[in-house]
Design brief:
The chain has 8 helices and 7 strands. It has helices spanning 9-19, 24-34, 45-58, 72-80, 97-106, 120-129, 148-158, 184-198; strands at 62-66, 86-91, 113-117, 136-141, 159-168, 203-207, 213-217. The chain is 41% helix and 19% strand. It has one domain (9-217): 3-Layer(aba) Sandwich (Rossmann fold), CATH 3.40.50. With 220 residues, the chain is an alpha/beta fold. The protein binds S-adenosylmethionine. S-adenosylmethionine (SAM) is lined by residues 41-43, 66-70, 72-73, 90-93, 119-120, 142-144, 147.
């Protein structure tokens, strides 16, 4: 087995310090989110930076996010989009809308974000029916973990050839390899991970950063 780095809190701090370009507005939103009871739902800094990088590599202009929460990952992604780029940001609730919008405005990216309230699966089905199939450059999936396999089939229709789907939390803090854990959310992610491994419609890369990110490339 090749050498694998054992990450420590000191190394994580180093990665965040040297490997990310978190702006003051992003930092303020991260710290404000930190005070909320569900703060662990937010992506960490290095993942925000990774999403920013992916958007730039793909030269993405039309991006979708499932699961907005306080808008931290949305802010990273919108910041990476060009002026005429659009992020369709979907959440089933608007509980944190004010906090998110305050920061999107402060960063000057509010006009790039089309925030839609509703269940992701229903809104995606509508987009497919409206003929938006094959028009998204990137879809970032971070909503209901029990629905990942459902989101996958819809995202695969909506993303363009050469576009990328990014699944968050595909390691579920290690639960995917713990046989005593039988939570519907973990079970659906296990099914998705197995399905993706053998799905010859796509190429994949499971990246063990954050809580596990799986990148899915729809071939050209
Ligand atoms: C993990 S949080 C998203 C975190 C966000 N990406 C960030 O990094 O700040 C998950 C979000 O998905 C939303 N959600 C859960 N089920 C959903 C569904 N079926 N459709 C749309 N949003 C959903 C929740 O309301 C919650 O805000």
């Amino acid at each position: 087995m090749g050498n694998r780095l054992q990450m420590t809190s000191e190394l994580f701090e180093y990665v965040c310090d040297r490997g990310t370009r978190e702006t003051d507005v992003l930092k303020d939103l991260r710290l404000s989110t930190q005070k909320l009871p569900d703060s662990d739902m937010r992506v960490p800094q290095e993942q925000g930076q990774f999403l920013d990088f992916l958007i730039r590599v793909l030269q993405a202009r039309k991006v979708m996010e499932l699961g907005v929460f306080t808008g931290y990952s949305s802010l990273w992604m919108a910041g990476a989009l060009p002026e005429d780029g659009r992020l369709i940001a979907i959440d089933k609730q608007d509980t944190w809308k004010d906090l998110a919008e305050r920061h999107w405005n402060a960063a000057g990216v509010r006009d790039k974000i089309d925030f839609r309230i509703g269940r992701a699966e229903a809104l995606m089905e509508k987009m497919v029916a409206a003929g938006e199939g094959g028009t998204f450059d990137l879809v970032f999936i971070d909503a209901d973990k029990k629905s990942y396999t459902h989101y996958y089939e819809l995202a695969l229709q909506l993303v363009r050839p050469g576009g990328v789907i990014v699944f968050d939390n595909t390691l579920r803090l290690g639960d995917v390899v713990n046989p005593s854990v039988h939570d519907p959310a973990v079970d659906d992610i296990r099914i998705l991970n197995e399905m993706l491994r053998t799905d010859d419609r796509v190429s994949i890369s499971m990246v063990p950063i954050s809580d596990g990110l799986t990148l899915v490339l729809k071939p050209v």
